[in-house]
Task: structure prediction
Amino acid sequence: MGIAVAALASGVFAGTRITSPEEAAARTAPPEASDVTVPVERRVLESAVIARGDASYTGAVDVELQFPGLETTPVVTGQVPKVGDKVGRGDVILEIIGRPVIALGGDIPMYRTLRPGMSGPDVKQLEKALDKLGLDPGTVDDVYTNTTGNAVASLFEDAGYEPPAPDPEIQAALDAADDAVRSAEDDVANAEAMLASASAGPGNAEKIAAQNDVDQAARALQQAKEDGDRPAVADAEAQLKLAKANQEDLLKGPDTSGERAALNAARKRLADAQSDRDAAAAEAGTPLPASEVVFVPSLPRRVDAVNVKRGQEADGAVMSISGADMVVTANVDAAARELLAEDMEAVLELPNGDEVTAPITEIREASDDESTYDVVLTPEDLSTEQVDALRSANIRLTIPVANTDGEVLAVPLAALTAGPSGEARVEVQRPAGDDGVATELVEVEVGLTANGYAEIEPVDGSVDEGDLVVVGREAPADDNDE
Result:
């Protein structure tokens, strides 16, 4: 009896340890992955350019003026600034022998007088500066054209001064070309008058007289025939023939070929004179004397020291100027540059924990890398503590570039997939029978994307706040892994 019970127990135990091939395969198969889901949210999305920037005052600059070709002593005659004055784009910082010295932004010193026909990087710098002032220099390139000269003239007129005059020799050549055009115009007028006079033809009196001669000769011929005077008939026929020939010559018009040739020659001389005048006018466009402009890296600035007085000769550094305001300069790539514009507001995170706003005051090509851009921001109304915290600091800044109008449906970018035709979709997990779940692909229209989220609007189907969307798959831990 005891032996039988033991055998039965052994059989039952063995039976529990015997596994069919199908069961063994099921137990060793990889576990099914489960959906990783997140709820759909309603939130405000804001797209922004985030960068780091260096805070600084623009360094002090000694202003030294250039006087190439100036034939008189460069005496200061007015417009002397005071310490603390602000120097901006297009401002007159000094007056030398009655002519202004105008400040413009740029890194290349003014080392030569610029005039139409010249080219170079200093010309491109000038045209950029004029364009920033709203003065149209034409295409901003490295060629000084008459349009550039017109913008220079406007620059001086806006400053309250007469535009610079061209070189006397160039002006004399233009004056001579103008005289040649006027003389050629007179020649054309005279040739036209001569052609008109020659083309006028006979007057009525001449025509009547010619007809009378014909009629008189015809009557004489008729009378001679009636008289039977053969010699008189022959003579009358000759007179009639002559009268008719004279009448035909009179009525067919004069020969004006000589007058027309003279007019054509006069018109060609006029065209040549006008071409020469245009060339001379191009060279005689408004120049920019080297002594009347000074280029300063970044403006506005503050006058720190003035080294000249009215009546003194301008020699060496006439003044020293530094940045008038503290600025923050950040470097961004071309893609970020496309999103930014001057006057956009940025949020600066100060080292002391404060946050302040600052507008973008300048965007320029980086001097050390033409593929990136320097974005200059100028914080306003800083407290003394904030200035101290910001000085020479490297800080994080955020520049909002777009945002949704209020709260919108938003999902993580990982929830978006592409359909067979490129349409955007989300996979929504919904309850199914017997406590199960099922997923549904819903086509959506994607709006603003920011901070890892995308604005969505259902196109076909429904998606609501709180719905679960699939963002990935996660395999459960394998119980056999120990």
Notes: Residues 65-166+285-322 form one domain.
